[in-house]
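In this supplementary section we document a worked example of the pipeline. Step one takes a protein sequence of length 182 as its only input; no multiple sequence alignment statistics are reported here. Step two produces a three-dimensional model, which step three serialises into structure tokens for compact storage. The input and output of this example are shown verbatim.
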Amino acid sequence: MVEVTYAAELGVQVGDRITLGGRPFTVTGLAVTAAWPSVNAPGLMWLTRADAMSLISKADPVSYLLNLKLAHPASATAFVNARGNASSLFFSSWQQISSQDSRQLQQEQMALVVGSWLLSLLAIASVAVLVGGRMAEQTRRVGLLKAVGATPALVAVALLAENLALALLAAVLGLAGHAPAG
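The serialised model returned by step three reads:
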């Protein structure tokens, strides 16, 4: 099995063949793991024990990833701190992984918020330009409405209603054009 983002980077799908250590393997599935932060595990793959052992060399020594379930999950950080990372073992608590994932999501969310604000401002500016241009074309019509006794408020309401009707029609057509085929 291959981690989803790594598979996308490699351009592989289920059933494709990949070569590891000179040996061909078939991709049997794609997976996502919450047990290890993806930013720290680029190229994550899962193999059977026999296949993993066959790839071991002095240049690529064996390593294991073991997820422990503690009787008291809240004590995970204390468990990690008590063992330290001075040995050949590396410990990471679920709180650390959750915190790292949360920071990454916050960064992505900030980029989306900034992008959505910029798109909103662009949409508002576009509408203002379109309405302004349309209003400039309506000067003769506004003059005729005023000549027959229409008040400025009535003229504004008439033009607003006309523009809202056009916007509603455009929205319906746009949504109908993008409706999923069912």
